[in-house]
């Protein structure tokens, strides 16, 4: 079968091969025919080594498709079911799950160290235990989440990561207050979803911050009240908040420099929500005095900061009701053979989300 493979960490191009085989099928497993997958920035971060991932590997973790076969003991889905892929399934038994923090369950990360594929040259891993830039993938049953028939595969794929992460950051983690002021730094697919979440929660002012003009223009269509470049953020804060700082600032880039900017843009007693996935060796520096004196809350948000299955259902309900726009997030579409075009579109900031149709 076909799959897009990164041979070595640090390479910037994927090779679409036809000699890849999905492996690991058996009890408790599900084989899925992937129909649509989104390109998330985390895929690029894994390719360049920012996020740890063994290679060679098939990127992709934001996918949806049809169940081809199920292993013994699987009762949650059956062949023919339409599903989205959850790259961080909850085991429901560990301490984190029992506390209700299922997004912190580590069970899914165990899969990342087990090859999902093979080819004549040896084993191939799947990013985040999945690997959706392929025709078929084998995953644990908990990774295959049934979706209603009226949810298209491309919409379901977005809900599998970017939409859930961004919406959840605003709704679950930060719990944005009605009438508040918000700034979102980084307006790709996740940042735009955070903007939509802040709008749903009733924020009065939502400032989108991004260096790419087309993304700033898009942010206005999705609910931002103003869109500025990074060097205009300080002036926007002075105008909108009388220099006090924003009530909530979302960092959706994953770099210490933008996290520091976000911290400075947050008012005393306000909330900085860190959504971007950054590198292990990229450290955010804060003085002990400012932590004490400013009393700003720093809230990291992992996969939307809530139970992912509940978040999926909420996103579908909001989409059905027309309260959020998901189709508008997909600005580009390519076939699997054009995956490197999709990578270029993401790196330049041209795309909010590119859908790879398989």
| Rg calc | 20 Å
In round numbers, the mean pLDDT is: 96
Main β sheet profile: 7 strands, mixed
How would you classify the quaternary structure? single chain
Which spans of ≥5 residues are poorly predicted at pLDDT below 50?
A: none
Straight-line N-to-C gap:
11 Å
Which structural class fits the helix and strand makeup? alpha/beta
Q: Overall 3D geometry?
A: globular
Strand content: 25-35%
Number of strands: 19
* Secondary structure: helix percent: 25-40%
Number of helices: 12
Explain what you see:
This protein is an alpha/beta fold. Helices cover 29% and strands 26% of the residues. Strands 4, 6, 7, 10, 11, 18 and 19 form a 7-stranded mixed sheet that branches. Helix 7 links the parallel strand 13 and strand 14. Helix 5 packs parallel to helix 6 and helix 5 crosses helix 11 (308-320).
